[in-house]
Design goal:
With 229 residues, this protein is α/β, with parallel strands linked by helices. The chain has 7 helices and 10 strands. β7, α6 and β8 form a beta-alpha-beta unit.
Length: 229
């Protein structure tokens, strides 16, 4: 099935001098297309490492990741980078917007880099997303002119603009007040339902946990529980 993510016996060992640190200890997961899933656990449980491996930012020491029928270990470094650009969107707690670009230009940037759509097609896609995340009329503002919640809305639209199979969100509500955080979660839920994009969150935030349709708890590099809602 398109968009299915399979993790088989994922292990990750880091070398710190003469000491080996086992961050992940045999993770097995099947994630279907369109899931709205939260990964939680204490600091040091392996959340960030797992997210980085799923996002093709890191490679496992052992095991394999199969995504959309593609065994990622068989890809060369440049192929892996291209695969990541095409199929995976990222949302970070720090927003990572480019300050000299407007809202519209920040959202459009992944499409400009990809060079696959005409200017008219890019315009249509970007403006649809600007409206969907509640930023209509703000497309020509710069990040310094936005609130934190508005910046995160831009980041969500940017992550979704290329219609990725998967969006990885690392603590997306960490810097937001309660009301804004709920609004941001609702936007992501709507985009999950409309676009059928898979969302995977790494978070400590119980507000995100409350809305997740599946909750995975990590402890000491292993899955302590995997609960559907």
């Amino acid at each position: 099935m398109e968009g299915k993510l399979i993790l088989r016996d994922i292990q990750k060992i880091y070398q710190k001098g003469s000491v080996s640190v086992e961050a992940l200890k045999g993770i097995n997961l099947l994630i279907e297309k369109g899931e709205f899933l939260s990964i939680m656990g204490p600091s040091g449980s392996g959340k960030t490492t797992l997210l980085n491996i799923i996002g093709c930012l890191d490679v496992p020491t052992k095991g394999e990741v199969i995504y959309d029928g593609v065994a990622l270990k068989n890809l060369k470094e440049d192929e892996l980078s291209e695969y990541r650009k095409k199929n995976i969107g990222f949302i970070f707690q720090s927003y990572n917007l480019i300050p000299v670009l407007t809202v519209k230009e920040n959202i459009e940037l992944p499409l400009v880099v990809e060079k696959k759509l005409s200017p008219a097609e890019r315009e249509k896609r970007v403006m649809e997303l600007i409206e969907a995340v509640g930023l209509k009329g703000m497309e020509n503002r710069y990040p310094r002119e936005l609130s934190g919640g508005q910046e995160q809305r831009v980041a969500i639209a940017r992550a979704l603009v290329k219609k990725p199979l998967l969006v990885l969100a690392d603590e997306p509500t960490a810097n937001l007040d309660s009301v804004t955080a709920e609004e941001i979660i609702e936007i992501m839920k709507q985009m999950n339902e409309i676009e059928k994009t898979t969302f995977i969150f790494s978070t400590h935030d119980p507000r995100v946990e409350k809305h997740a349709k599946r909750l995975i708890i990590l402890k000491d590099g292993q899955i302590a529980s995997d609960e559907g809602r």
